[in-house]
Amino acid sequence: MSVSEENGVTVNSIVQHDDCTKSTDEGTPLLPKKEKYKTYRRRWFVLGVFSMACFLQAAIWNTWGPITQSAEVVFGWEDSQIGMLANWGNIAYIFTVFPACYFMDTKGLRISFTACTAMMLIGTGVRCITTNPKYATWLMNLCAILNGIAGTVPFAGPALVANTWFPPQQRTTATAISSVFNYGGVAMAFVIGPQLVSAPKYNYNNGTRNISVSDRYLKLPISLETETQSPKNVSNTTQVLINFTHVREDIVYLMYYECAAAGLIFLCSIFMPSKPPTPPSVSASTARVEYRKALMTISRNRAVWLIALAYALPAGVYGVWGAVIDVILKPVGIGQNEVGWIGFYSIMAGCVSGLAIG
Fold first, then answer.
1. In this predicted model, what pLDDT tens digit does every residue of 14-46 receive, in sequence order?
2. pLDDT-based confidence at 152, cuts 50/70/90?
3. How far is it between the farthest Cα atoms of the chain?
4. Is 289 a residue whose pLDDT tops 80?
């Protein structure tokens, strides 16, 4: 095998020698067959667009968990609604991931990816229509379902992107990059949400303090000053939300930002090529096994089930816990800003330790 550079394109030439025992005739070439496999610089553009879609889809999924306290006062939601918004994405993904994988195999990466980014754009767009709680709640749930369906390609597609565009020695890196961006989207949502959306502020008889909604669940107040108050003063204190309009506007702007990002990713996906003109390796040009047959073979493989369970059990438990971490920590008086940083550092610690162990 020889390697050469031609105008920024890496060319891997593989010479395949015919079997010497094979009979020759006038239709058999006298010289050995030579096939070229190329890698293109545009593969990094494809990986970048795909990784950003992974990032945004995960951030949209984790929109409401980090700003639970603000969302509940604006839309009148209960804790169960916050949990269900995250759960809709998981439910939609489970029911659509296998058809989406079949669609990727039959229609190609570009069409599948563009369809998913279109659903992300539609989902984030409908959330911007109104903040009226009566209608907004339905629109938020619709967005969660569409975003869950849109997550099928970003979750299941990293290996296909790596195999289609990258040579064998770069595929592990390409798959790792897109996977890290997915977790990065969840982590950054814990930071972006609380930083853009103000926490509820209440007016008390004894003054105005920045205090979380969780104080309503406490027997004793969480004071931002050093002094303490008796339970008697708390029972006689009334609270009035004084920054409702500001909190609602912050949530609207957050919806606008995510919709604009989804629109940008959708536009980039339109111009993303489906596959390179020349495959980067032999395996990239090899015909795939029929989808249904491959699925049945995998389902009977015990090792695959063990690997899947080893990943699914810890990731699933932590995923659902992280999605409602603000709901869990709210009764003990932890504000959504602090909860956001807890979620961010916990996810980043998992990413760093995973890379170190790997």
1. 444 444 444 445 545 544 455 577 778 889 999
2. very high
3. 104
4. no
Pairwise CA distance, residues 102 & 39, whole Å: 26
Q: 63-67, 106-110, 213-217, 272-276: which range is least confident on average?
A: 213-217
Cα distance between residue 170 and residue 172, in whole Å = 6
> What amino acid occupies position 222?
I
What confidence score (pLDDT) does residue 257 get?
A: 96
Side chain identity at residue 226, one-letter code: T
Q: State residue 234's pLDDT score.
A: 46
pLDDT at residue 323, rounded to an integer: 82
Q: Which two tokens stand for residue 214?
A: 């969780």
With helix as H, strand as E and coil as C, how does the chain read? CEEEEECCEEEEEEEECCCCCCCCCCCCCCCCEEEEEEECCHHHHHHHHHHHHHHHHHHHHCCCCCCHHHHHHHHCCCHHHHHHHHHHHHHHHHHHHHHHHHHHHHHCHHHHHHHHHHHHHHHHHHCCCCCCHHHHHHHHHHHHHHHHHHCHHHHHCHHHHHHHHCCHHHHHHHHHHHHHHHHHHHHHHHHHHHHHCCCCCEEECCEEECCCHHHHHCCCCCCCCCCCCCHHHHHCCCEEECCHHHHHHHHHHHHHHHHHHHHHHHHHHHCCCCCCCCCCCCHHHCCCCCHHHHHHHHHCCHHHHHHHHHHHHHHHHHHHHHHCHHHHHHHHCCCHHHHHHHHHHHHHHHHHHHHHHC
Q: Which of 249, 248, 244 is nearest to 202 (CA)?
A: 244
